[in-house]
Each structure stands twice: as structure tokens, then as C-alpha cells.
Amino acid sequence: MNVILLERIESLGQMGEIVNVKPGYARNYLLPFKKALRATKENMTYFEKQRAQLEAQNLTRRGDAEGVAAKMAGLSVVIIRQAGESGQLYGSVSTRDIAVAVTAAGFGVERRQILLDQPIKALGIVKTRVALHPEVILDVAVNVAQSEEAAALQAAGKAPAAAPEAEAADVAAAAPAAPSADGAEPAPKAKKAAKKKAAPAESTEETKASEPKKKAKAKSKAKDDAD
User: Fold this and answer.
1) CATH number of the CATH domain containing 61
2) What's the pTM value of the predicted model, to 2 decimals?
């Protein structure tokens, strides 16, 4: 479908140019948001009559956008998300999430102004482009972390500390096994030591038990010798 651009569109062209686009892109984005007109004879005539006014309006909007961009320079927003040990998010950060964060920072933007190639799926700081105007685009740092403290460390260029749960698990894994209080079988070394300790006691009991028999046998032999 051929359309007349009413403003500069990145990767398409400048205001007034006639470009060919996919019908779905034109119907769903360019035409409803008044960024283009169908390239009909009537519309081409209308555009030429309105061109001076459209260019003046564009200059005004661009000037306003440049003023906002100056205030937004160096802006960084924090988005808190949960993630696994490898840093992969449970879910992702979308253009909607970023637009909400930027708006919360005091600069009203819509999700369509966030130029993100694909959703953010890992912890870290991602430079994301925001289009305040077709000719005014700036970078915003999106700091995705598991907490405000972790975000501050990332912003300072430091690696966030391990989560308390992970540290506790590491300590528990490294610590020696404690004796069981519910009668569980002891460790092999403890079992061996107990066996050695019990051995002398068993020998002593056997010796005591055999002494009466020896005395009786000796007494009987002495009687036979006397007879």
C-alpha cells in the first residue's frame, strides 16, 4: 500500500514522501495515528495545500520534544523483577513496563514511544531508546534488579550480593553433618569408633563368666589326685 508520510518515520522516510508499506502496518499504525495518508490523488492535493502548516506544526512539536529531552538527559529508571540464579527473569520487561516507569519518573510517554527490539529477559542495565518525536530520540537506562539495593549496586558498577537464601544454602552444604536426635543411624566413622570402644567391655565380661568354671575344674582335679 502506498501512503504519504505526514511526519518523519524512522526506517521509512521524511514528511511528504510517498512510500510503500504493508497493508496491516498502514491500517493498524500509520493511518489511525495520523502519521500518513493513503496516496490517492485527492490526498496528495490536500497534503500539498496543508504542507506549510504541517511543517510548522512539526517544528513546534520538535522544539517541545527537544526541551523535554534536555530534562530527561541521563535518566535511569528502576524496574524490580524476580529472577533465577543465572539472572534470567521470571517473565520479562516489556515496552509497557518501561513506559510506566518513565511516566512515574515525571515524563509522560506511551508504550509506542519505547523503541525496544525485544523484551528484556535478564537482570542488568539496558540502554533503551525513547522517541519523544520522530526527530528527537534519546537513551534511557533501564535498571532491572531484584531489589532497590541491588539496583543501586548495578548502577555503581558492582555485582549485587548473593541472596540470603542462597548464602544460607551454601553454608548448610559446607557444614559437617550434626548428630541426629531422632535415633538415626550414626555416620560410618562414629559407628566404627563405638564398636572399638565396646570390644574391651565384651572381653572383660566373657573373662568373668569363665572364671567359676575354671575354679570348679581345678578343684575336681585336685580331689582326683588326692584319691
Assistant:
1) 3.40.5.10
2) 0.65
